[in-house]
Amino acid sequence: MVFPTLVFNPRDREYKSYQESLRDRIIFEYLFTSKSRRWLDEHILGLDAHYSRGWQSFSILNYVGLTDKHKGFFKDLEINQALSFLLEMNDDQHKQIISSLTRYAQFLNTAPKNNLDWFTPPLNARKLIKNIGTSQYTDGVRIDKEFHDVFNPQNSPYYVERGNARKIRVLFNNKIFLADYRFENQEDRSIILQSIRFRKELKEEFRRVFPVPIGEFSIQQGKDLNHFIFTHSANIIEDTEEEDKGYPEGKMAFRTHRIFERDPKVIKKAKEKFSKEHCGHVFCEVCNFDFSEFYGVRGMDFIEGHHKKLVSEMKEGEETRIEDITLLCSNCHRMIHRKPLITVEELKLLINKSKR
Known about the structure:
The chain is of the alpha+beta class.
């Protein structure tokens, strides 16, 4: 094989604008998988390829001397074989490419596999609660300022500087997706914006899970800051004070039930308070069932909120306090609401009697 001559472009603006790990992957994908520059812009740099037209990746590749002739040159080789080939050429011009491929080879050898163990949050890990919005369909999610030092601490090997991004993995809906944690490069230095930029697959999953942008999800780090957990769970807060009634009309039956208006914020705050008091865990206050222990990551943060005071007994304008909410598993919640209604304390007595 004859490695095509490198043609260097001295323009370094785009090269310096991106994190080293992103540049390394661009060089690897171009040389080994023949990815187009538009693909590199979209899937590695998180850009709109129709807008960028591959220019950012083109400039990065040109800065280290790579041209169209190098695209897919090593497609039939392993990365270590390609490194041996370049080293044998003993040409100082290849130093940047060799260094880049050496780092990427180390990353491939040490990168965690896509298993759920890496998405176990540390004890007392903080959670950022975000509203579902159309931005998750098209871009990603903004990180609140109070979480910048949590998800992107300056004195850490994971820190990304302004204008850069690091590749992360996201567990969402029991699937693992690639994304980028980005420190936005605002011209006004007083503006500090950080965000998790979604790639195509994660955007599509959000749209599939949330066809209507209503609800909330939480963001929490996994074992390290290259792994994040997005959790969405159903807060079942309705009071089924009446059993469904059927009214036969010929061969058809119409079912009706009463609907009561609840403020979901009180459930959210009750869960947050309970989780904080129990090292990040939520479980049934009657039978102690923990969905995360039984179902693993899929059951994280799942619990139902029960209103001790029936909404039908409340006066208009009366507010529900956090203390009025009990967190229950689905079974205990249903047993309380089964006719005749019983209290949380009465259900606890029933469970204790059944264990004797």
